[in-house]
Amino acid sequence: xxxxxxxxxxxxxxxxxxxxxxxxxxxxxxxxxxxxxxxxxxxxxxxxxxxxxxxxxxxxxxxxxxxxxx
Amino acid sequence: xxxxxxxxxxxxxxxxxxxxxxxxxxxxxxxxxxxxxxxxxxxxxxxxxxxxxxxxxxxxxxxxxxxxxxxxxxxxxxxxxxxxxxxxxxxxxxxxxxxxxxxxxxxxxxxxxxxxxxxxxxxxxxxxxxxxxxxxxxxxxxxxxxxxxxxxxxxxxxxxxxxxxxxxxxxxxxxxxxxxxxxxxx
Lengths: 70, 186
Hints:
The structure holds 2 protein chains of 2 kinds.
Chain A: H1 2-5, E1 10-13, E2 17-22, E3 25-31, H2 45-54, H3 58-64
Chain B: H1 5-9, E1 24-37, E2 42-56, E3 59-66, E4 71-74, H2 77-98, H3 102-114, H4 118-133, E5 152-159
Helix pairs in contact in B: 2-3
């Protein structure tokens, strides 16, 4: 999705999170969840929604990931 | 997952989608006071933030306005609140691990806080107007005048000591666990 909706984005792996940067803005909280193995080890959809809002790419993102519409 | 790529591959299974997104949102304030360890400093971070609380199909999500780069979700508001705090701390922990000095940490922490989530801020302001006019209310949260808590962050150094690994000091809270006794290994 980011390849299409946020071309040229950069991602950086940190201890707790992936940090997504584009231009001079950075979204620092896509959890790696290395420390939290509770019932939902996958990236929770709310984090992606927040990232999509942050970079103002909602329309494109929802075309790539329809589950974001809910 | 079509169109997923790197981010899509990591998503949890899709929610049940009814086509529209029935949500109620509320403008909320929060305040955090935390001690963060760096390689050669200890910092105190004092934050008053804004977030949008949204009731969604499978629970609640808190979306950061200031800072705009965090979110937290859960089946109940309390769980979403804990997850938002965890999100916030995880970013500060990451920044502290990379910071070469207290000044580095302070600059990056302030930059993190001030990057606003503009679409969420627009929703926050709209719902705040509804709260002020009496059109929107909830019994689940206490009320506070937002003017008394403008968004801000203050980072102070509180100690300097010999170099150590920040990971040795920075820890998330431990959840409650059932006390058990494991049999000793034979």
